[in-house]
Amino acid sequence: MLLRVWNKIKHEAQHYWQGSKLLAKEVRISARLQRKILQGETLTRRERRQVCSSYLTSSSTDYNG
Length: 65
Description:
Distance between the termini: 36 Å
Structural class: mainly alpha
Mean pLDDT: 86
């Protein structure tokens, strides 16, 4: 019983750690692309898709506060 609980805790901690690293990377990329846009540079097709994806992901989050 205790082992099962410990494994569940480890799994959840790993899940949140990986999600945090992914979020940090996403924010870093989005900031770089935003800087490019503000400097008047054009974005590649992939960069435009990344910006749209980031925007849709962040705007679809439901905050109940």
